[in-house]
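In the previous chapter we treated chains in isolation. Here, by contrast, the input contains two separate entities that must be folded as one system, with a combined length of 490 residues.
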Amino acid sequence: MGKIMIVGIGPGNISDMTPKARLAIETADVIAGYNVYINLIAELIGDKKVIGTSMMQEVKRCQMAIDEAAAGKNVALISSGDAGIYGMAGLIIDMILNLPESERPQFEVIAGISAVNAAAAILGAPLMHDFAVISLSDLLTDWEVIKKRVECAATGDFVIALYNPKSKKRVQNILEVQEILLKYKDKNTPVGIVTNAGRLNEQKIISTLENFTSEEINMFSLVLIGNSQTYVKAGFMITPRGYDF
Amino acid sequence: MGKIMIVGIGPGNISDMTPKARLAIETADVIAGYNVYINLIAELIGDKKVIGTSMMQEVKRCQMAIDEAAAGKNVALISSGDAGIYGMAGLIIDMILNLPESERPQFEVIAGISAVNAAAAILGAPLMHDFAVISLSDLLTDWEVIKKRVECAATGDFVIALYNPKSKKRVQNILEVQEILLKYKDKNTPVGIVTNAGRLNEQKIISTLENFTSEEINMFSLVLIGNSQTYVKAGFMITPRGYDF
């Protein structure tokens, strides 16, 4: 039976991908993943077999990877960012462990630079203190649960990283989140928005809690909301850790 | 004036370090950092000038890096993990922006694989859902603030990642955290402990909220506490995202 490598490719450029991830892709027999992400690493794939599926076909993609492994192929199942953070690791491992023990392929997760890591580096140093990571996609999670988490993160004065802040169809959630946060946080709290981090057309915007929803935010954006100590200076967003100097 | 590259080297082995981080180290004139981390990348440093300082000397280390840049040298200031997550990025940028504008060296943060990314990959897929990252070091943060954050993260049913869970001198905090969490979470909630992730003597333990504090935890450990959906199977820790398959 083949092995499934669950590979976080990072933001999408080769210079942010770990050597371990690159090796897993280069040595695999089959590459599986969402077409958009496969295109980002086309230069590493050469003439390997590719199982590219479109968005929302996560289950199909994983099943095809499992079938290839059962047929003796080594598969690199790729995720953008970190496969372990809102990536493919959860579903594929869930599906593998659901098989009878004798039919389970071996697997390994290879960590990558996630959007929260990449966006923070671009903004300066917003994550120097405790932070909460929340996805605003309510496709698989009840919206009430997500709102409660936003409320808890605000109560705890966490820096807050929002994944999937907005898509073409999902434009209301970010406005509701803003409304909740304004109950707990100063309206001038710095907010950083990084879109296409580490990719072509990378964009960095620094705004405030009161105003950030009028900026361009899309499904390739990561939104970082400061805690009560976060400040902006010279175009950078910093959450001081509290050293004396 | 030289430039300061603030480099996250990842867990500590070359195969988890991004090419961008490696290039920054290889092309720098001077390498600055905590001695232990400098030793992890000794093979990349060759005969460059090294400013190694011992633990707790963060301010001194940053000042030396700034002085070198003022003298025209390009400096790689290294952090283990991600320089942007409890790493050196905050302090050095804080110090640079505090200088008169004409004396500020250019700088750039290079993201790396942080302990939370590395530990999650080793444990399986514990971070497939919203998570909170909290440091239990109360050196620079009031212990009451930290406890409140733990409480908020538990109320929101976040997966919780604990950095700096314990040191030789700080053994009580993790016990208090356990006590708080037991008020909100089931005592059988899975807890993963990864020590020396990606380094020699890497250790992975899977335990429960009720029992995990009796396991070996030290300053090189990352502790991951599941949410209400997290399960353990075949030695892996999974927080399902909620796909039907």
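Chain A touches chain B through 77 residues (CB under 8 Å). The radius of gyration of chain A is 19 Å. Compare these points with the single-chain example from earlier in the chapter.
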